[in-house]
Every structure is written in C-alpha cells, then in structure tokens.
Write a structure and sequence with these properties.
homodimer, 568 residues, alpha/beta, Nucleotidyltransferase, domain 5, 7-stranded mixed sheet, 38% helix
Chain lengths: 568, 568
C-alpha cells in the first residue's frame, strides 16, 4: 500500500522550513531549514530607526528551493516508503503582515536594478513599526468615519499592518511608492508564484492576510472603500484599484504547481497548492485547534489563536487584533491575539545585554532555582510594543524592583514572568467577552525548549499548559492545508476536521499549576495590571505608590518562608 | 623653617584611608589605603536579606594602624621636610550612621567570644536597611507625639539611623541587645579609643552623628526623651540612660593621643585629636564649603552638604534628612541631603549584571557617544531606596523605554542620568525652601574619574560643575579638623575659615551646561519627576500614559536631527 505525503513550507522571521508529513498519521518524515543570508539574521535594519525591519524577497526564493530539496533528501533518508512522487499537495505560511511592493507583472520591485538598494522596495516585515504615525492616523480617521472597520480589529489599526506600511512608503521613499503597481502579502506571493498566478489580475489573496490587517471584510464589500482611503491619502486609491474584491480561505486552492517550480523543487507537476496563510494561523491548525482551545505559538512573538463556529454570535472585542470569518479554518471565525515580543525579549537580554555572557541554558538553570516573588522584580513585556490588548507599538519595556543584588537570572526570570502576565491579560480579555478558554495548547520553538517557562505560564494563568505533539506546528499546519488541497485524491483529506484528527495531537506531558505559586503570581499580576493600565491607557490614573512596596513585602514573605542560612 | 602637618583618617565603606597634609598649603604629602578583609568588600552580608550590611570592628582597628603607618612611609618618600614628629593633630571621619553595640567598658560586643559569630554584634553599616519597619514606626509615633523631632529630619526617620537599628537588634538578636550596655557611633568610637576616652562615662559624642540621626537637638534637651522611647519600646529607655546630654562639634576636642596609640601608630604622644564626624561632612569641609556652596560627595552614594550661618532663619525642609546646628562647621547650620545609591548602581550594573563583561571604562567610552534622549531610556535611581527627598528605603530601581536594541552602554548612561535627575530633585528642594545654590563643588571618587558623568550633571542641573582640588576631600577635611584641633600651636589653625582658605580650593577645569542638552534633559527630568511622584508619594495619582510615548518622541527627534546613514 502506498504512503502519501504533503509538503508544508513555513517562512519564519529568520529562516524558512520545509516539512514533509505522512497525511494518514501526521508523522513528520523529512524536514530542512534554510537561513536567510541577508542583513542581521535575515533582517535589513537601520540602527537609527529601531522600528525598521525589512527582508529581501530573493532570500525567500533561494531558501524555498534549498529547504524543500533538503526536506526531500531527509525524508528519503528516514522513510524507505517515501518518494517525492507521493507528495499530493503543498501548503505555505509566512509571517505577516509582510507586504511587498510589486510591479504590474507581479515582480517585486526589489528585483528591479533601480531599486535594489532601497529599503522601501524590500518586504516590509511584520515587525516593522516605522508606520506608527500612519497607523495612528488610520485609527483616528476610521474612528471618525468608519467605526465598523475598527471594531473588527480591536479598535486600533496597527503599524504592523498593510495600509499603514504602504502609506508610510509614500513618505519614506516616494519613488518606490510610485513605481509599485500593487502590494502583495508574502503569504499570497509564494502560492501565486508556485502556481503561475502571481500577476495581479490572477493572484488570489487570502482572507487570513486581507481580513482586519488589510481591513477586508465581506460585511463592507471587501477592502476599504476608495472614499475612506482617499481621505487618508489620495494616492492610496490607486493601490486600492489594484486589489480584487474577493479573498480566499485555506480551504480554497491557489492553483496547481507549475512545471517550472516542479523542476526547481523536484516535486510532481500539477499537484494542488493551498491558499497561503500567516504562520500563526497554521500553527493553530497544526496544534489541532477547535472551539474552546487557545493555541499559543510561542516564538519571537506570541500568537494566540482561537476559533468559533460561524454560527456563533460574536461580540466585537476591544483590543483583539482580528475576528475574521474563515481566517483560520473554513466554516469558523478566526480570532487572533498576540504579544509583540516574547522570545525577542529573552534574546535581547542574552544577545544584546549579554549578562555575564550567559546563554539561555545557563540563565534558565539559575532562574529555575528561584521562587515566584523572591527577586522582588517585576517587568513589562513591551520591548516591541503591545499587540493585544492595547494594539500600541509606541510602548516600551520596563523593569522595576531592581536593587544592587538583582542578578542576571533574576532579571531573566522576571522577563519570562512578564510575558506570562501579558499572556494572562489576553486570556482574561477573551473570557471577559464570553469566549471561554477550556484548554491551552502551546507550540513553537520556545514551548519545546523551555520547561521553566511553561511552568511559569501554568502558575500565572492557573491552567494546565498542554504541548502540541509536533515541534513545528506552523509547517505541519501548512502540510495539512496541502493535504486538504489534495482533497479526495489519494492521500488527501476532505476537510480540516479530518486532517486535524489524523495528523495532530498533544503530548502526554503537561504542566500543571502549583497552588503556592498561583497565589504569589496573583499578587504580582495585580501589580502588572496596574502598571499595564497606567502606562498603556490614556487618561487612566491610579495610585502606584504601593507597587514597589508590595513587591518588597512579597519578596520578604517568600524569603521568610525559606530556611535561613545562619549568621556569618 | 619647620613644616607642620596634620593627619586625617577616613573610614569608608570598603577601606580606610590615612592622609598627611601640610597645614599651611593643603599639600597632600602622604597617603595610604587599607582594605577591610572581612566579608564581601569589607561587608558582612546575608543573601536572603539584601537590606543587611554589617562590618567587623576589628577591620577598623587593623586598617587604622596599617594605613597610618603607610601614609607616614609615603610622606617620608615624597617630602624630605616631613617628619612624623611634625604632625600636630588628628581628625577622623567614618560612614554613618554606623552604630556599634558596646559593653559597659566601651568594648565592642564583636570582640566578646560569646558574640564573635553574631551579625547583630557587629557594626551596623550606614547602608543596612533591615530596620525599615522600626524606622516607619518611629516616624509614625513621632508624627503623632513629637512632630518637632521629625521636622528636623525631613519628616521621615530613616532605617539608616541609630534608633531604628538598635530597636531592630532587639528583634533580630535579643541576646546581643541585652548584652549591649550602650551603642556608639563608629565616628565617636575611634577618637574615644585614640584618646583613652572610650568608656561610656567619658566618651564624647559628636553632634554630626547625634543630630537628627539619633534625634539629638539642643531644642529639646539632647537625645529623645525617655517617655517617647518607652512608647516605642520600653527596652530602649535603658539605652537612652547610657547616653550623655551633650554633643560636640568638630571645633571641639576629643582629647589627646594616648601613649598606647602613639606607639601603635608612630605618632607624637599627646597631640590633639578632634571630634569625629561623618565622612560626607568632612568632605564638605575639605571642599571648602561656605554659604551658597553645595558640596556633592559622589561615591557609592551621594551626600549633598550645605551650610548657613546660625543667624539665618531656616525653615524645616520636608525630605531633607538633617538640619543641625554645628553638624558640619562650628557657627553654622549643617544641611545634609543625599542619594542612597549612585556609584553603587553603576557598580551593580558592571559587577552583578556584567553586561558583555564590560568595565566602567569601556561602557563610558560607548555611552559618551550617545546624545541625550537618543536611547529612549529612562531610569530611576532607587536601587538602594531614596534618601532625599522621599527618605524611603522601601523603593527600588526602575528602567523603562527598553526595546530589543537597548544595549549596555545605553543602559549605563540611563543609570547615570537617573542619578543626575535625583541630584536635580535635591537642588530643587533646597531652592524651593529659599536655600539658594550659588555654586556646586563635586568631590569623591566618581567626580575624579568620570568626566561624562560631570557633563551629564552640568546638563541636567543646568549649572557648572566645579571639582574640588583634592581627590580625597573627606580625609582632607579630617586633617583640617586635626589642624584646627592643634589650634594656636605651631602648625595649627585657629578657625575652620582659616583652614579652608589655607588648605582647600577648586580646579580650574569645570563642566558647563550645553544648551541643546539642557533642553532635552528638561523634558526627561519632567518624566522622571512624574515617575518619582507616582511611585514614591502615597496618594499621588497622575496620568503616566504619555511617559513612554514622549521618550520615543524625544528619541525620534534626536535621531532625525542626526545625519542618517544611507539605506542598506
């Protein structure tokens, strides 16, 4: 009996990964990763503009070919039954919103020699916040003229998103803006390219990227109307005219693999390619998302994904970045929240501050020995701003409770705790609006690597933390989309429900809350929330004069409960 | 013609220094330093109680002998005219409040074999804050029953001080408390020992230590009354009974050098020994303090000293730690303010956080290249609490404005700026109560070593920063007291005015404010003040939601004004 496989391609922030999966079992038989060669860890940066982060589209193409070939090789080594001829479908995910300026033929301006050295002609990576002023203007204008637009994206339009970035390009580099016929999300470009549908008249755009991030909603006829865009900036009307009036879910096809790409990748020509999506959404799929399950993709940032059947009466939830029909799965609302910095923050501490030149492993080993509250430290996880629930990039990280004994491990743990408090803030917002979180499934690089973090999350959120069985859920989700794209062909799946039950699962090992820790963290979370609101919400006032004192009281209580070393 | 010399002995936090000075010119002809061997940098610590800091009295005695002999040797090497026989007087300064529990013979309990391993039997170093609860209770009780006590110490009694520490000893180690006949300040013990007057019935206590820190004031008949102390804790009445009703200024004599100590130190027997004082006060004297001059002693902490003639009508100034007649100079009010952590904070960053294992020199070299506001960081200098103007040890350090590019040099500079904002807060408090600051003279280890810091202080305070000519002003001030103790004898000085004009001066090189920097720092100081009041003053409420945004706005403006590197 033949075995059948699907291919998932997952474009991350620093690298692209290919994963080949047995569609009947979810077994991952081959994988490979290619690092982007350009800039710093694949990012083109500007030291005078910490908000800027771009990528070269060529890195995506070179990485794609290299990692797919590597994954095929790896599968051939691991699985005697494997043959690339038995790959039945392809799925693709990318970071986002990562729009790329394109010419009228669907070719990135970065490939045009006139613009090869221009940062504005590159892919505008999700974490680029240079357009914070434009985002704020879009928010203000929409609040005034199109409040229903805002209601679907948590009441604040983000500088991480499509229109703000395009508008900022007009100011940053007008020549690039003028030369761009349209802008295409990275997640749409790759499936378009693989299926020969990359020219703007043919290109299908995914609802995952278009919904809320590009203000697309069937309720108002697709992308925002020309009058609204013109009121922001007349030049945006031209870009609007280049966009279609339809968007597609991952249950839809992008098309069939072209001969050209079949040759480049060593895959069967004509196999189905699914519509693309953002990595986090496919991470949710690869973690077996269902009603009541919160999937947390813990990486550089955190994405928090939930779904609810389209039959649900859903409220608009302030601060929640997006509630979009079919953005995650066909037939369901996708709800997307997230933290702008998680692994980023830990990496900053290890790689930029370089405390005692300790690595993550050494810091974790020391931080694990600490009790909750013992250091007296409290941090806020806003080094890259706050996505949910404040949707505000103009915030920054904070550490307080410092004394002259505060050591690297204590600070490291406080940073991890800060992200846990941020995570709890999101869960509380979901539940405050009636979206019950029955189960939390974690996936992503950090979930696999840092058990201390998961215990802290269990203690802070006072819920068990489950782990997705796969350590590469985004790529797995993409591969599942590839399997569903194959449909009723041999090796395909008819529905995502079927693919989820065949191809996903959670590990037996989970992390459960410890009551003593929960109690201490409840107190610290109260302080975090006070700071969160004081620094994050305009017009809020509160008496913060107990914050430092309460931290010291907690520290002293925790230390008193410990056996004391004897004098001298 | 004979040259005449005096000896100053300066007991610091980690070491003791002896300095031999030509009394007619202020020329420093010989010096030596002895490190205290015990504990960590001379401090006995307890990792579970970061507030605890004790010292072994034996370290003081061993260090005294060693550094005086070293200074004599050094003077003999440097100055052919020098002979120890021409030393005419001795002055002594120490940290404080650093009380030591003593038996009825004036011998420290630390020397009693029963207590040799007991932290409570040691010297309770100025920076020991274990008595924060007792300090708060003294403040509360005095506010209720003796508000005039509080008015002289800035309205808050500190955990750094005499009565709080003694009371805490009763709770920490009742046996030590019971065994102590009295408690003696380090600054009184050494002159007592040198002059054979260390037994409690003979010992003279200096007003510098007794005033405000031990609640001594001629206005209410000396130390606090027994009824008040009994209302705190009946056992304190016994300690009160061991104390005299008189305190002495540095214009007074402790006595004459005993034969025993003359032999131990290699000094002429019978020479006059001045009353001791705290290091900062003598630092003021050694910097040539006079009306309108603020002397800042920049070291582990900062002490800020001013004087005003006794004829002045002085208000009580909230938050100012002490306004005591003759605490600094005879015939003048001494006014003492200070910051609980300055060099301590920089050392924490270099020695505990150890960013990239960079030292002060390397961090300063990078931090110097930054413009004010360019990092977007803002810190609060409360790692060891706040002495002036909040007088609150239950505070902690804070850093905000962090992003994932925030590097060690940026953080280091932000910490220095934080101490500058703390310094400005003190100057503004002086001036708000009519004490005009005409001139700022800096001295102490950091002033001599860190030009960037002085420029930042000039910019933040918008005043020139002058530097004391001597790099060891505390020891110089002690030596000046030794010269005044010699009085009309050959080589002595009749008055401190005479000693100041003969023996002190400022360097020609000073640091002047740069208008662009002043403007940026004015904005940052406004934010610092908002945070200062929000976290430091009970019941204060303010809208902090612009703090992070203003920091980013300032950063962006500063960077826009800079030449930009070209794309890619």
């Amino acid at each position: 009996m033949n075995k059948w496989y699907s291919l998932g391609v997952d474009f991350g922030t620093s690298s692209v990964r290919a994963l080949i999966v047995d569609t009947s079992t979810g077994q991952e038989v081959g994988t490979a990763v290619s690092l982007y060669p350009s800039g710093k860890s694949g990012m083109l940066l500007d030291s005078n503009q910490p908000d800027l982060a771009r990528q070269h589209p060529q890195d995506y193409l070179d990485g794609l070919v290299s990692c797919v070939k590597g994954a095929i090789q790896d599968a051939q080594n691991n699985d005697v039954g494997f043959s690339p001829a038995n790959i039945v479908g392809i799925g693709v995910d990318t970071t986002g919103s990562t729009p790329i300026p394109m010419d009228a033929g669907g070719v990135p301006l970065a490939f045009d020699p006139r613009f090869e050295n221009r940062l504005a002609a590159m892919a505008w990576l999700w974490k680029d916040h240079t357009s914070f002023e434009e985002a704020a203007q879009i928010t203000a204008e929409a609040a005034d003229k199109r409040p229903h637009y805002l209601a679907k994206c948590g009441n604040v339009y983000s500088s991480e998103w499509f229109w703000a970035k395009i508008w900022h390009c007009l100011k940053e580099d007008p020549e690039v803006f003028q030369a761009a016929y349209t802008w295409v999300e990275h997640a749409d470009w790759i499936p378009g390219l693989l299926t020969g549908t990359e020219s703007p008249d043919k290109l299908r755009r995914c609802i995952c990227a278009a919904g809320h991030k590009a203000l697309f909603h069937h309720g108002w006829g697709g992308y925002p109307d020309v009058d609204f865009l013109t009121s922001l900036e007349p030049a945006l009307a031209r870009i609007r005219a280049s966009l279609p009036n339809r968007a597609f879910s991952i249950g839809d096809l992008a098309g069939e693999l072209t001969d050209e790409w079949s040759n480049k990748l060593g895959l069967p020509a004509g196999i189905n390619v699914a519509m693309g999506a953002f990595d986090a959404h496919f991470g949710g799929v690869g973690s077996g998302i269902q009603k009541g399950t919160l999937v947390k993709i813990l990486g550089t940032t955190t994405c928090d994904i939930m779904t609810a059947p389209l039959s649900t009466e859903l409220p608009d939830i302030p601060g929640l970045c997006g509630i979009v029909p079919e953005s995650v799965l066909p037939g369901a609302y996708g709800m997307e929240a997230g933290q702008s910095g998680v692994g980023d923050i830990f990496n900053w501490f290890v790689e930029v501050v370089r405390p005692d030149k300790l690595d993550h492993v050494a810091l974790t080993a020391e931080a694990e020995k600490l009790l909750p509250g013992q250091s007296g430290l409290l941090a806020i996880d806003w080094h890259s701003g706050n996505r949910t629930i404040l949707v505000d990039p103009r915030l920054s990280g904070l550490i307080l409770g410092l004394n002259t004994h505060s050591n690297p491990a204590q600070i490291y743990r406080a940073l991890i705790e800060a992200t846990a408090f941020g995570a709890r803030t999101i869960v509380e917002r979901f539940e405050a609006y009636g979206i019950k979180v029955d189960r939390v499934v974690n996936c992503g690089g950090i979930a696999a690597k840092n058990q201390m973090l998961l215990q802290i999350y269990a203690d802070v959120l006072n819920r068990p933390m489950f782990l997705s069985r796969s350590t590469q859920t985004c790529a797995l989700g993409s591969a599942m989309a590839g399997a569903v794209a194959a449909g009723r062909k041999a090796g395909g799946h008819d529905t995502f429900d079927e693919a989820i039950s065949a191809m996903t699962g959670v590990l037996d090992e989970a992390f459960y809350p410890v009551p003593e820790n929960v109690a201490v963290y409840d107190t610290l979370f109260g302080l975090y929330s006070q700071l969160h609101d004081a620094f994050g919400i305009a017009g809020s006032t509160s008496d913060l004069s107990r914050v430092m004192k309460t931290l010291l009281d907690v520290r002293d209580q925790v230390n008193k409960a410990q056996p004391q070393p004897k004098p001298l």
